């Protein structure tokens, strides 16, 4: 005859086996539920990041080209650090990027024209600059000293972003299109830009002046 204690232990052991899988099953279900809000939050964060550029562009200050500013006569002979952004009419420094008036290379039937030649910017300000090709020839936009003296954020072509650890050699256009350069100026200075590969008769060039 079996001891009552042995019978009781056997019964309890059987109950333990019957209910043992329930714990991990419930735990797994809880983990899955916890992961869903985290995944949703990550997806929302990605969406927010994608919208940042659009939000910054809306309502951003537009920086006019030189002819829209109050540039004193003979200032091209002065050091850039001697000029004053407030006096020449540049927008105040802001935390968001400012939009530089687009530079357009060429136009229909006039491949060697540019809409503006000279640009003025403030030191320590973030900018976005659209450089467009509307002519029917190939353009190589060169501004090596300028690119080396700013903090390059990114270059955007058709919503595709290029991030670099240094300055681009040049921007090349084999067809009509826009390249957006996003950067932050660092120090005052006057820098030349030009379209490479053209003879003197058809040269396309100008300046970018960064002032305090």
General description of the model:
By secondary structure, the protein is an alpha+beta fold. Helices cover 29% and strands 33% of the residues. The chain has 4 helices and 12 strands, in the order H-H-E-H-E-E-E-E-E-H-E-E-E-E-E-E. The chain has helices at residues 4-19, 22-57, 85-88, 144-148; strands at residues 62-63, 98-107, 110-114, 118-122, 126-133, 139-142, 150-157, 160-162, 171-173, 177-185, 189-195, 205-211. A hairpin with a 2-residue loop joins strand 7 and strand 8. The N and C termini lie far apart (102 Å).
Brief rundown of the structure:
By secondary structure, this protein is α+β, with helices and mostly antiparallel strands. The protein has helices at residues 4-19, 22-57, 85-88, 144-148; strands spanning 62-63, 98-107, 110-114, 118-122, 126-133, 139-142, 150-157, 160-162, 171-173, 177-185, 189-195, 205-211.
Key words describing this protein structure:
seven-stranded mixed sheet, 212 residues, globular, 4 helices, Cupredoxin, five-stranded mixed sheet, signal, alpha+beta
Question: How many strand units?
Answer: 12
Distance between the termini: 102 Å
Task: Specify the overall morphology.
Answer: globular
> Mean of residue pLDDT?
82
Please tell me how large the radius of gyration is. Answer: 31 Å
User: How many separate helices?
Assistant: 4
Describe the main β-sheet briefly.
7 strands, mixed
Order of helices and strands: HHEHEEEEEHEEEEEE
Q: Regions with pLDDT < 50 over 5+ consecutive residues?
A: 8-52
Structural class, judged by helices and strands? alpha+beta
Instruction: Bin the helical content.
Output: 25-40%
Strand content: 25-35%
